[in-house]
Amino acid sequence: MKKSFEKLGFFIQNNRFSVLLIAFLCIIIATQGAQLIEMKSGTETFVGKSSPLYQDFDHLYQNIFQTQSIVVMVEGNDVKSADLMEAVDRLEHQLQATDGVIETTSPASLIKTVNQKITGRYELPKTDEEIKTIIDGNPAIFSQIIPDNNHMLISVVIPGSASDKTQQDILTATEDAVPFAEFPPSYNIIVTGDPAFSISMNKEMNSSMGILLGLSAVFMVIVLLLVFRHVRWCLLPLPVVLLGIVYTFGAMGYVGIPMSMVSMSAFPILIGVGIDYAIQFHNRLEEELQDKGNKTRAVIETIKHTGPAVLIALAMTALGFFSLFTSTVPMIQDFGKLLMIGIVMCYLSSIFVGVVTLSLFDSYADKNPLRKITNKIKPADSGKKKKPGEENGSDRLIGRALQKTTALTIKYDVVVLGVACLLCFGGLYLDQSVPIQTDVQTFVPQEMPSLLDLKHMGDIMGGSDELNLIIKVEDTANPDVLKWIDKFSEHEVATSSHIHSASSIVSLVKERNGGVIPDTSQEIENIYSGIPEAQKDRYMYGKNMLLLNFNIGNAVSDIKVTGIKELTNIVKQDMQWMPAPPGTAVTITGSSVIYIEVITALTSGRVAMTFLGLVLVLAGLFVVYRDWVKALVPVIPMVIVIGWSGGVMSYLNISYTPLTATLGALILGVGSEYAILMMERYFEEKDKGQSPMEAIHMASSKIGSAIVASGATTVFGFMALLASPFPMIADFGMVTVIDVLLALLATFVVFPPLIIILDTWRDKRKELRTAEKETNEQIKGAEI
């Protein structure tokens, strides 16, 4: 492998300006790809399209029946006034002419319909008394949109499958139409609804993305100035890794990875992990430039030695991330793809652009006439030439502290390992009680205006979560089917405290037939012909499909997804003892129902992800080292950290989300690098003839400060997540920062006694086998 990288080093050194030109062209290509990135926050980011639950939802409900509503809520002292209804009527006329709007429903249009039945004129009454008489006299019609004297709703219905752009256009048209409707000044107008919330959430994700990247950059500047100041141009790794992020954005667009609440958090992680690659190349090249007079050879040696080492670390990280692909939650799969692409892009940026840029900077510094002046402006001790392997003051301090820690942990090895394992098992036990959160409203900034408006409407009108029953029939006009729907609906509303109301074609039929369902199909067909198509299409498709909606209020936040699963099972059981007519098939679906799939994915799926990541990293290490001790020792501390992480989440009362469910894979991918570096140095020192105790002390003192610096860059990168306005991302950031610190702790506390015990045991086994072999040979010699 080193020969291949040596050839690559020759190529890079001989084509430095060509490499930079290609890198610049790639920036242009990446910029074009970034334009293709889509923002997604809907159901498809939680549940895979191959899932039977999602297919029922998508094919049977979303594409046929589902509609969404942009809601205009009017607040005031008295909403039953003629002046207000005229303003509502003006607004409705404007919105009905908007492209993409299926229909509008408002108190004004309903009042005109009732007034037509009374007077024969389809118009609004002129006085407040007439308006109030119609509204108060028909509570069944108006109670849903005028819940009290101070609030009313105007619903702008759009297709459930409408694109984000269509939703945005209709929302903008609605907001623009409100001023032209000339509402009386004493009323407050709020434009809300699920589409408005989704659009606002996408905008918030887009704006917070820049904030996260900016904070990551600031934190990286701080950590580089703290731990990397002993080299020239110590801030250079930052633009190098940011270049890798730019390339990642481009690949994201071309590959088709959407921007979601989970994928947006990948970039601070990539900065924290990827900058370590740039630091490794930068540090080695500076070392080679100091030691060798031949600058060309310095570039070649850097790429020859550092390229393979960093590539192996990248491969182990990638194996940990690879387990994310086993999740059935699309946003977790996208998160895994983004992390895999990102670490490769950061590696390529570091080995090509980082090395070439530093090489050119060094060449310019030699020609700089001010170099002699700048050389004079150095710290007082800069004139002292460091001996090979000599460390600066801070490195020596960290090294001595780690050496003392190592001695202490080895002295009390049984206690240390015993306590670590007990805490691990305790954390794994507590992990089982960590709740799972899938309510999207809890993931977003709680002070977001669109969320506050949506919650305000929910407090007044009640929630809008639904169970949707798709009823496949032989004839939609079969009176037995309609009577069953009516009877079953009444039973579910009466017996279940979580089902508040039901809506179906039955209510429209009864409304036009004196409150009863006709006994013949022909009578029902005649009624169907008089129902407006827009209303009929919401509950009936062709001649073979009907829709029954159960309103379950705020069930997603009240009884959680597990409660919705139990409610769905109750409805299924009720259908068994109150069966539908022969030839009828019922499928329960809806956005609330398909989140049941998320529960399964986040409970069993996250355990499977962690286990697969463990197996992959273990297998990868064994393939690289061909030694079971070297494969096992770096993994065991990370398994312990995974257990500790469960205890941390339980203690901090942080729920599992699609993002925190990835923690096991991230710990394995990021944290195992520290133990691998310690192990490499341990066996290097041991190969020089030192005893296991001497080797681990030397490893702790010599490479410990480098591992601390590497961990610091990762921690500072993750810390940017803490500032995210999205609670889901902020919680994830908090736990990952703690987990990386725990991984460092395990590297310096758990790893030393573990490696000493296992390696010493193996050495004794080897000595014993060697002694037995020599004894057997002596016995055979004596017999001869």
UniProtKB/TrEMBL annotation:
Chief location bin: membrane
TM ranges: 209-228, 235-255, 261-279, 309-332, 338-361, 410-430, 607-625, 632-654, 660-683, 703-726, 732-758
Chain positions covered by the region annotation Disordered: 376-395
Residue ranges annotated for the SSD domain, each copy included: 243-360, 597-757
Subcellular location: Cell membrane
Pfam family, one: MMPL
Alphabetized InterPro entries for the sequence: MMPL_dom, Mycobact_MmpL, SSD
Topology of this chain in the membrane: Multi-pass membrane protein
UniProt-listed SUPFAM superfamilies: Multidrug efflux transporter AcrB transmembrane domain
UniProt biased composition (Basic and acidic residues): 378-395
Keyword Transmembrane tagged: yes
Keywords: Cell membrane, Membrane, Transmembrane, Transmembrane helix
Stated name of the protein: RND family transporter
Protein's organism: Methanosarcina baikalica
